[in-house]
C-alpha cells in the first residue's frame, strides 16, 4: 500500500531559552535537517538561568548526538564537573550538629544479584561498621572533599560524572550552532494563535502583526505556557500535596578558584523552610534558596540566605522566582508539543529539568509524526512524559519525607503531614523490610550510554540508598536472605576493602578539579585562536 501521508515540513518553536534551543538543535539533527525550523522569542521575557546542575546523560544523549565534544562545549558554558550532590543538614540543623551525606553517580556492584548496599545495611544495623554509606560503597567519594577531578590530566575518565553550567550560556551556544546550520531565529512577542476547525494550530501571531505558519508547534515558552496554558488551558497535575516549596531566590557569587579550588559537586543545604543550592561554575557560583511561602516570608528567606553566605553575599543582587511543582495532564495536544518549563517543573533538588528537556526530545523523535498526526503517537509520548515526571516527583518527595529534621514547622509538616504518594509508599515499605528497591537493568559501565533503559529505570537501588541510608532512614531488618548467605557477606567485605584501597589510590592519582578545568579552558582558548573563532 502507498503511504498517502505527507511529512511535516515546518516547525515553529516558541521560546529561546534552554528548552527552545535544545529542541531546535536536537530535532534538526535527528531529522537530518530535512524540516524548516524557526525559533521565535520575545525580547520582553528573559529566559531562566540560575547556574544549573545536570545528570551524566546530557553528554551521551544530547551533545554527542549533535557531534559536539565535551572539550568544546564545557569551557563555553563556564562548565564544571559534578560527581554528585552533597546534602548538608538534612538530618539535623547546623546549630544541632549538622552532618552531611552524598548522592553519588554510578551503580554499586551486585554480588550474586544482591546489591552491596544490602551488605552495608546489615553491617550497619549490626554495629559492624560506622563508615557512612557513600564513603563505603564508592571510591569516588574521596574526590568530593578533596575537590578532585573525575578525569586525569591526559583526559582519561576515571569516575562517572555530570556537569554544572550556566543555562543562559547553553542557550546562547546552541543558538549560534543552530543559526550557523540554517535554523531561523525571530524576535517577536507572540500574542495569539489561530486554529483550524479541529483545534489544530495553524499559525501563531506576533506583536509585529506577522503570522508564523507551521505543521507542528513546540511550546518552549517557559512558565507562561503560551499554547499549553493560554490556548489549550490543559489541566495541571499539581504536586503541592507532597512538594511544599514554591519560591526561589537566586544569587550569583564571585569565586576565587585559584585560591579556593572548585568543588566537584552540587551542595544542597537544608535551612528553616527549604534548602540552598550551591553550584560551582568555572569562575563564579550560582546559588539560591528554594523555600515554601507557607512557612516563611520573602524577606525572612532573603535574610536567612544572606546569613548563610555571610559577607560574600553583601551587596549582591538577588532575583525572586515563583514556581509550582506540577505537570500538565498531557504535554502534547493536537499539533502542539510542550517541552521544558512549559510542560512540567519539579522543585530543583535533583536537578531534573534539563534532563526532562532532552528526554522529552528523545521520546518526541521516537514518536515523530507525519502531518496527519496519528493519536497513538501522541498518547505514547504523553504516557512516557507523565511516567518520567511522576517517577522523579516520588524520588524528590522522598528526600523531604525521610529527612530527620523536626526543628521547624516546614520540616515537621514534611515528615508528618504531607502526602506520601502511593507509589513512594510502596518503595518505602519495601525498603523498611530490608528488600532492595529497584535493581539496575544495566551494569555500572553501561548505565549512562544506554539511554532507553536509563529512562525506564531512572532512579535505582543505588540512588535510593544514597539518600535513605545517608539521611539515616534505615530498614527495620537487614535483607533476610543475607542471614543465610555468609558467602555474600564475606564477598561484600572484600569489595569494601577494595573500594577503600581504590579511594586511596585515586586521592594520589587525580588532579584537582581546578587544575583539570584550567587546562581545558586554556586549550580551548588556544584552539579558538588557531582557528580564528573567538570562544
Ligand atoms: C529555581 C530554579 C532552579 C533550577 N535549577 C535547575 C537545575 O539545577 N538543573 C536543571 O536541569 N534545571 C534547573 N532549572 C530549570 C532550568 O533553569 C530550565 O529548565 C531551563 O532553563 C529551561 O527553561 P525553558 O527554556 O523551558 O524556559 P525559559 O528559560 O523561561 O524560556 C522561555 C522562553 O520563552 C520565551 N517566551 C515566553 N513567552 C513568549 C511569547 N509570548 N512570545 C515569544 N516568546 C515567548 C521567552 O522569551 C524565553 O525565551 C531550575 C529552574 C528554577 C526556576
CATH top level of the domain at 4-79 and 165-238 and 326-391 is Alpha Beta
What is the name of the CATH architecture of the domain at 4-79 and 165-238 and 326-391? 3-Layer(bba) Sandwich
Task: Tell me, rounded to a whole number, the average pLDDT.
Answer: 95
Radius of gyration: 24 Å
**Structural class per helix/strand content?**
alpha+beta
Largest sheet: number of strands, sense, barrel closure = 7 strands, mixed
The CATH homologous superfamily of the domain at 4-79 and 165-238 and 326-391 is called: FAD/NAD(P)-binding domain
| Count of individual helical segments | 18
Distance between the termini: 52 Å
Strand order of the largest sheet: 6-5-17-18-19-16-20
- The proportion of residues in beta strands is 15-25%
Low-pLDDT windows of residues:
none
Query: What overall form do the CA principal axes indicate?
Result: globular
Question: If you had to describe this structure to a student in words, what would you say it looks like?
Answer:
- With 535 residues, the chain is α+β, with helices and mostly antiparallel strands.
- The longest helix has 28 residues, at 375-402.
- The chain has a domain at 4-79 and 165-238 and 326-391: 3-Layer(bba) Sandwich (FAD/NAD(P)-binding domain).
- It starts with 9 loop residues before the first strand and ends with a helix.
- The strands form six sheets. It has a seven-stranded mixed beta sheet with strand order 6-5-17-18-19-16-20. It has a six-stranded mixed beta sheet with strand order 10-2-1-14-23-22. The protein has a three-stranded antiparallel beta sheet with strand order 3-9-4.
- The structure holds flavin-adenine dinucleotide.
- Residues 14-20, 40-42, 45, 47-50, 52-54, 167, 189-190, 220-222, 224, 226, 248, 288, 321, 323, 340-342, 348, 351, 353-354 line the site of flavin-adenine dinucleotide (FAD).
